[in-house]
Design a protein that fits this description.
This protein is mostly helical and 132 residues long. The protein has 4 helices and 2 strands. The protein starts with a helix and ends in a 9-residue tail after the last strand.
């Protein structure tokens, strides 16, 4: 198995998703900014540096997820198809939705409703990002 290719494919998928979210934010479809949320966990501030660090973290995580998908195709099922990809993505979706809820507890700058959102805080996404 070629982990480099799997990682690269995951990064490309993450880049496409990130660009789609930037477009969605610019069209005011959502305010959810996972890159800023990830970066601000480490910088403890909402800044351009936080956003840049968050983009790098998001792409790294996407690359690792690509490796998990490839490992599942190669070592677990020994084959790949659109149906298996869909099944893997449902597992991925479930885990991600639960992690969105946990992010509100782990992130030092996130506030959960009904608490008021103060200056310099982010709204916690909630279960499956229901707050967005």
């Amino acid at each position: 198995m070629d982990f480099g290719r799997a990682f690269y494919s995951g990064v490309i998928g993450g880049l496409i998703t990130s660009v789609a979210m930037i477009i969605a934010r610019s069209l005011e479809v959502t305010q959810f900014n996972i890159e800023l949320a990830l970066g601000s966990m480490f910088t403890q501030s909402l800044s351009h540096l936080s956003g840049a660090i968050g983009v790098l973290m998001y792409l790294l995580i996407a690359g690792l997820i690509g490796c998990f998908y490839a490992t599942g195709f190669v070592y677990v099922t020994q084959r790949s198809s659109w149906a298996l990809g869909l099944l893997f993505s449902l597992v991925h979706l479930g885990m991600t939705g639960l992690m969105m809820d946990a992010l509100g507890d782990l992130h030092p700058l996130m506030s959960r409703p009904p608490l008021p959102l103060l200056d310099g805080e982010l709204l916690a996404p909630g279960l499956f990002a229901a707050n967005f």
